[in-house]
Each structure stands twice: as structure tokens, then as C-alpha cells.
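JOB MANIFEST
job_type = single_chain_structure
chain_count = 1
residues = 293
[input]
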Amino acid sequence: MKRVGKKILAFGMIFFGLALFLYPTIQTQEINIKSSPYIKEVDKSYKKNKKSGTRPETDLFYRQMKAYNKRIYKDGQKGIVDIFSYTEFPSIDLSEFKEDRCGYIQIPAMDVKLPLYVKATEENMTKGATVLGNTSLPIGGQNTNCVIAGHRGYHGAPYFREIERLNPGDKVYIKNPWEKLAYRVESIKIIYPDECDQIKIQKGKDMVTLVTCHPYKSHGRYRYLVYCVRDNGEKEEKKEKKVKTMTGITYESSKKEIEKDKWIERILAVIVLICIISLLKPVGKRKKEEEQG
């Protein structure tokens, strides 16, 4: 009976360890599986439009988005209250968006490819990256700044967890059915959540701004902003990474916290391996004894 109890305990430990160890991977794979068909669909539409030489301006929906971007710039982007406020797009018909999505974002330095949701709701935040309301839609153009928010990791999936890997000069890509837009990281800043002027359109610029919480596991104490400008293929000198902060904020790198979580996952993997070996060893020993007998 004691041997049976030990086996049950060992199997329980293995199951618990495997669950904890595999949970982040499972969550990440689940997001990838769910978003993969849509990303393929965007790629297919993009290739089709490029092959046929279709100009984006010929699409009525594209023209509506462009008009929206012009309108919010002219109006001074009224309605931005908090950088993570879940405001929608009341002045544009969203029925043409495929399940509230408009293309996807790819960030090689973070190893991230996520669908772009145009309604920054809590539900959409759990499924990908989101475009904040009263900021530009992701089609580029002069006097635009598409502000894209992502969780600093959510239920094990990374999302924008590794945002501190980004350095000036790194590339960020946005792909929609009409174009592939390339942006280059220009600068980084940490601000308070209500510093809304920091994410507004900058006159004459074509921008994307990435935003997430900071520090890692801080429950949204500050916001980490990565300003990206349209990359026109010009050669740029690599700049030293400097993180600007608002008055009263001290920059705290999240690298140690993130690495600590990764080490916990590795330790769990070792514990699970040891448990499996300890279970298999007596079985192997008994078989050997039976063969000798």
C-alpha cells in the first residue's frame, strides 16, 4: 500500500509540474492556432492585390479609414482619457472589419506576430494586439500615429512581455490586405497612464507607437512606449538605447523578473524529469530481476 501511495504522489507531482511547465507554451500555441487562419487570409489578400496591381485607394473601405485618420488629426484626437482606456471607433463603420481585425503586427526582435484588433476591449486584448480608440487606423500616411497596445504577458502567453528587447533601429511591420508597412524604432519613453498627449499624432510624421504596462508584473503602474517612424529604406546609424522618463519615474528594467519566471519554468522541468526517472527506475529494476529469475 505504501508503494501505491508513493506512486500516486509521484504521478501527482509529475502532472502538477507538467501543467505548470507547459501552461505558457499551450497558451501561446492556442493564440497562434486561433490567429493563424486570419494571418494567412491577410497574406493571401495582400499577394492578390499586389499581383493585380490594385491600388489601396480603389477600395471604398480603405478610403473610409483614410478619411477617419484625417478627421481625428483635424479634431485634435478628442476623447483620449487614459492610454489603456477601452474606447472604440464611434465615427467609422466597423462592419467591414473581419471580426474587428485589420491586418497584423510583426516584431522580429520580440519574436511576435499578432492580429490587430481595432476595438481595444478587454476581450480583444486577450486575443492579440489592439489599436486604441481615437488614434490612427493601421494604414500609415502623413499625420498618423497608430497606437498599438498589448498585455505585458497574459496567462503565460508573451504578447508584449519582451518589449524591452527593442532598441532604436529595430523594425516593426504592419501588414494589411493592401500594404506591408515597415517602421523603425526611434525612441522609448516611460510615462504615467494619464499622460495622453504623449501618444498623440506628431505633425508631418507617419508613426506607430507600441504601448504596454511597466514594470513587468506592476499591475499597470506606468506605461512603456516605443515610438516607431515609417522606414523608407534609408540607412540609419544605430543609436544607443536611452529610455526617457517623466518626472518622478525611475526606469526599472524588467529583465530580471522575466528571467526569474523563465528559471522557475526550467526548474519545474528538471523536477518533472527527476520524478519520471524515479518512477521508471524501479520498473526497470523489477524487469531485470524477473529476467534473471
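[summary]
The mean pLDDT is 82.
Residues 58 and 87 are 29 Å apart (CA to CA).
exit_status = 0
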